Amino acid sequence: MTTVGENDATRERAPELLFISGMSGAGKGTASKVLEEFGWYVVDNLPVGLVEELLDRVLASGDAPTRLAVVADVRSLGFLDHLQALVQRLDARERTRILFLDASDEALVKRFNNVRRSHPLQSGDGLVDGIQRERRLLEGIRGRADVVVDTTSLSVHDLRRRLESPFGDPGFDFHLTVESFGFKYGVPVDVDMLLDMRFLPNPHWIPELQPHNGREKPVQDYVLADPSIEEYLASAVTMIRLAMDGYRREGKRYMTIAVGCTGGKHRSVAITESLASRLSALEAVDVHVRHRDLGRE
User: Which of these three, 167, 202, 222, is where a domain ends?
Assistant: First the structure.
């Protein structure tokens, strides 16, 4: 397998590698189709012991893909026996990332029941037992993942947008996703930095603003008029830039910032729009905006 000690010519030929794993039923098949749209060559359910051989063959090929994604999970032959060794080899290889697809136990149970399938680790026990068994086995790979995507509340289109930032257009140096949410609906689990906007006055209690949302000018004017917000946003941009520098040093070029308020309708949406606008001015940075809970109330 290609390692850090390879020569410059070999490094130039080496494809970008994405290792995809995650919970059964979390959407790896859908993610694979999306990645193919983005130009990745996807190999699904390969025996884990053959991943290294695949990479060697791809590297030796004259028409090797520039972006290779390998999907493996508990269905894959040798997954549990070879997983730890594979992760160590991936850590030693340049231009390699790990994507982990996750979902809540409740969402996974519903999905398995909808398709009337048993869980691959159910082994005669209940469906929940199989899910919990798999979650314990995958703790290590989830913790090592460069990107974790929680698909619990994502539609196919939402998943595509979520994957576009880190795995879409390779022309940008860094990809940022700024996502608003409501604390009353739960904190997103797949974020790198969280900003809490509940210290700001709430437009919900202003009768003429309550029907509007943070994408509309009256609410934005109200939220951004707070005397503390300019300093807060400037500090947030500085903090994000410092984190981006650290991520670059670690070989990571994507980051998700979650901006929360109580319901995800007014303050967090307005601040997300303003923050994203400021971050878009940074050089070679691709910024995506997502409002998770807007329209949910």
Answer: 167
